[in-house]
Specification:
- InterPro entries: Homeodomain-like_sf (IPR009057), HTH_TetR (IPR001647).
- Keywords: DNA-binding.
- This is Transcriptional regulator BetI.
- Helix 1 crosses helix 2.
- The protein is mainly α.
- The protein folds into 2 domains: about 50 residues, Arc Repressor Mutant, subunit A (Orthogonal Bundle); about 140 residues, Tetracycline Repressor, domain 2 (Orthogonal Bundle).
Length: about 200
């Protein structure tokens, strides 16, 4: 197996810089100047690695979706042997930096750009559906006697609490917000235990 090319490595570095800029300035505010400064490269090299503006945004979306999908798969594998709603909640809310907080922020920024780049809708939606499916499968496995629809609702609630909490990271909110979301997710999961 050959070594990754310098071109591939440089493209990843530029995409990483683009992600950091989107977190700070939004998709449209992440200019070539910002990306070049963040990557430590000259502007023409940014275009060389990512192409025109539309190609840049599509490459970023592909990178974000791929990273998000890898995180989803890691979550699924980690909970495969012990599929439990509480373990899911622990993994999401106590990930100790295992998940890159920029992913959710970039994901949200890309969603907000769908009117400009409608081709983003499908890959973003499919990756989120896969995330929900992992959560639903875990909740169903941990509550086999519970109503399937109730399990799906609880799984959606847990994921939504996590995403909302993660989206607030740039605000640097009080830690109580994260704790409240964590305990709300636990309470939500407990509703299934009451029904079985």
């Amino acid at each position: 197996m050959g070594r990754p090319s310098v071109q591939d490595q440089r493209k990843k570095e530029v995409l990483d810089a683009f992600m950091s800029c989107v977190v700070r300035y939004g998709v449209e505010g992440a200019t070539l100047e910002h990306i070049a400064a963040q990557a430590g490269l000259k502007r023409p090299l940014i275009r060389h690695h990512l192409g025109n503006r539309k190609a840049m945004v599509l490459a970023l979306a592909e990178h974000v979706v791929e990273t998000f999908s890898k995180q989803t798969e890691t979550l699924r594998v980690a909970l495969d042997e012990h599929p439990d709603a509480r373990n899911l909640i622990e993994a999401l809310f106590n990930s100790d930096g295992a998940m890159d907080p920029r992913i959710n922020i970039c994901y949200q920024a890309l969603i907000n750009s769908i009117e400009i780049y409608p081709e983003l809708r499908k890959p973003l939606l499919e990756s989120m559906e896969a995330f929900y499916k992992v959560a639903i499968d875990i909740v169903l496995a941990s509550h086999p006697k519970a109503d399937k629809q109730a399990c799906e609702i609880v799984a959606h609630g847990i994921i939504n609490l996590f995403i909302t909490t993660d989206a607030f990271v740039p605000l640097k909110p009080p830690k109580t917000w994260g704790y409240s979301s964590y305990f709300a997710a636990l309470k939500l999961a407990e509703t299934l235990e009451e029904k079985t």
